Amino acid sequence: MAGRTRITGIALTVAAIALLLNVPAHSEGMGKKGGRGGPPTENRPKVDEKAYKAALDRIPTPKKPYDPWGQVHESESAKTTNKPN
Fold first, then answer.
1. Are residues 9 and 16 in contact, defined by beta-carbon separation less than 8 angstroms?
2. What stretches in the chain show pLDDT beneath 50?
3. How far is CA 66 from the centre of its chain?
């Protein structure tokens, strides 16, 4: 009788491990038919290329480029005054 309960315990352990290894696949949508679940491609709105390019053209161009390190760098006048003779 002791051998039978040991085999049952091993079988239950193997089944539990197989179940736990299968859970991440189902959480990613692999359990559904057809693979990952997402919006169908037919329902996506069409992109109007002319409107997109017109919107890009309406974005103003900056007069001088943005320098995120502008306050960290030395000013241009400080760089030119330190010339060796």
1. no
2. none
3. 27
